[in-house]
From TrEMBL:
Coiled-coil regions listed: 3-33
Stored SMART domains: RRM
Name recorded for this polypeptide: RRM domain-containing protein
Domain RRM: 56-133
GO molecular function: poly(A) binding
Transmembrane intervals: none
Taxonomy of the source species: Eukaryota, Metazoa, Ecdysozoa, Arthropoda, Hexapoda
Entries under InterPro entries matching the protein: Nucleotide-bd_a/b_plait_sf (IPR012677), RBD_domain_sf (IPR035979), RRM_dom (IPR000504)
Location (main, coarse): cytoplasm
Keyword check for RNA-binding: yes
Amino acid sequence: MELEAIKARVREMEEEAEKLKQLQSEVDKQMNLGSPPGITSPLNMSTEEKMEVDNRSIYVGNVDYGATAEELEQHFHGCGSINRVTILCNKFDGHPKGFAYIEFTEKDSVQTAMAMDESLFRGRQIKVMPKRTNRPGMSMTNRPPRGRGYRGGRGRASSYYGYRPMRRPRGYRGRSSYYMPY
């Protein structure tokens, strides 16, 4: 008798968890649009509209991972009226990528914000640049991603593990040249 009651309770809890999951995915979808329904979301903007928005936006690099949109807004509020602050996160694990975009109401605010380049935000020197429009089909960095990832990987390894890349690549390159018969 008691076992049946426990099973029924477990079933209820599983159903509840499923409902919560669906709710969470709905919230995530809305959050990903970045704007409430009715306002043009970045997904269905034309290239011209995107360029217009990007002309009023700045890229902020080297942002502290713990920073919030509110703190960034406070840091830049003297530059002009702010429409939106977007902190970019890794879509796989949700961790911040360390950079953000700030969209101003006026185009002139971008020039004012450029003066904030190399200013200290949460104890880190931030990089401020005008935001570039990503054209469809263009690489975001105009560099092959493999080269970027490889360089980044080696850089991280050297600072994290104390790995000295001087010794190994030289030997590796030397060996590879011996094996090439042509």
